[in-house]
Amino acid sequence: MPQKTTTNRIPPKSIGNAKRFIIIIPFQYRALIGNNQDASKKGIGQSCGTCGPAHSACIHRKIDLPKGFSMQICRSIVEMRAAVGAMSGSIGLVTTMGALHAGHMALVKAASTHDNVVATIFVNPTQFGDPSDLDTYPRTETEDLALLEQAGVAAVFIPTVGEIYPEGEETIVESTNLANVFHGLVRPGHYRGVATVVTKLFNII
Q: Taking the CA atoms of the chain, what radius of gyration do you get in angstroms?
């Protein structure tokens, strides 16, 4: 029997005169959004000669962006909140750890049903159990930014570890059941790290 999946959402908020609706789409659900017709009309994530038609998302295809379009790169919470506060309409949020590929761009495609798309790139240290895994995780910021800009992303949040986890901070988000079953059994602390950073990103953006 197919497993039921859901998308986590939070209700609309007001930012000045703009209403926003933030959506975060878990990466493991990328296969469910490959046929998003509204996003396809905007040209995001369509296949190309390099990827072939079988791909649900293409990282090579460019879309027709408005003249003068420039993606904002925000590295502090203050900058990110200022960028979001200046946007009008709804916002789709796509959280990533970078090293983007077709699956990530499928999430951008789905989020493009909103008026604005915001992405985050943050390699979250609290979800890694083995320090060597964190050290060897690929960092491809230049390439990632190029892909996001050509996909029409309005702003990208690329914080430092200190920006997300300031010295002396003690608050965490714990998943009491998920942390003790399935993947949680073999990666202690993983879901705590994921739940904590996602909560932080929701509150920042």
A: 17
Report the chain (205 residues): mean pLDDT per 10 consecutive residues: 42 43 44 38 44 49 67 98 96 97 96 97 95 95 96 97 95 90 89 95 94
Position of tokens 């992303």?
153
CB atoms within 10 A of CB 201: 21
d(CA 168, CA 18): 35
Catalytic residues: 104
| pTM exceeding 0.70 | yes
Determine contact, residues 148/74, Cβ cutoff 8 Å.
Answer: no
Q: Is the dihedral of CA 61, 64, 68, 71 positive or negative?
A: negative
Cβ-based neighbours of 196, under 8 Å, separated by 6 or more? 126, 171, 172, 173
8-9 and 23-24 strand pairing:
antiparallel
18 Cβ partners below 8 Å, 6+ apart?
Answer: 87, 88, 89
